């Protein structure tokens, strides 16, 4: 059995935890909450540090110096981070769903994830180039696929 099937999220080593991130980049998109309905909307406006092609953070190790509001995802707070996309590996494991076939730990690379349209690759704009964030609401980050 793979380590993520043998252990709970709380039991993972730091290396195992980090390797679970599929690198989709969707958690780095700006999100809006409707004041009336409290509905969450994703936008295609990405954090200024997100690399739009690799879908990774340009300064991951020092990200909190550049973006203090960036969220560290941990076993302790995963239950509260309901804004994470359904496809997020941490959210999937927290909900007992397992990893998807396109996940890099299953498929061996990020290619299947990109081809399945799960990642942000080629779909986002840097938040610093956005004028009206409401014009950037999109549905594609909601996509999940087993
Ligand atoms: S600082 Fe890095 S990890 Fe945090 S939201 Fe921005 S791109 Fe994502
Ligand atoms: S949404 Fe989850 S799996 Fe995707 S990059 Fe963010 S933390 Fe990693």
From TrEMBL:
Q: Entry's Pfam families? A: CxxCxxCC
Signal sequence bounds: none
Q: Which InterPro entries does this one have? A: Puta_zinc/iron-chelating_dom (IPR005358), UCP006173 (IPR008228)
Question: Which HAMAP family does the UniProt entry name for this protein?
Answer: UPF0260 (MF_00676)
Q: Which family does it belong to?
A: Belongs to the UPF0260 family.
Q: What is this protein called?
A: UPF0260 protein HC757_02940
């Amino acid at each position: 059995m793979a380590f993520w099937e043998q252990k709970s999220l709380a039991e993972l080593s730091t290396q195992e935890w980090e390797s679970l991130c599929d690198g989709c980049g969707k958690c780095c998109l700006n999100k809006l909450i409707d004041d009336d309905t409290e509905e969450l909307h994703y936008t295609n406006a990405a954090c200024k540090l997100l690399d739009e092609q690799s879908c990774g953070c340009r300064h991951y190790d020092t990200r909190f110096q550049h973006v203090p509001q960036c969220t560290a995802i941990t076993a302790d707070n995963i239950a509260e981070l309901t804004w994470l996309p359904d496809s997020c590996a941490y959210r999937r494991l927290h909900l007992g769903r397992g990893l998807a076939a396109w996940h890099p730990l299953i498929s061996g690379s990020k290619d299947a994830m990109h081809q399945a349209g799960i990642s942000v690759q080629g779909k986002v704009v840097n938040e610093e180039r956005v004028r009206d964030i409401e014009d950037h609401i999109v549905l594609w980050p909601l996509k999940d696929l087993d």
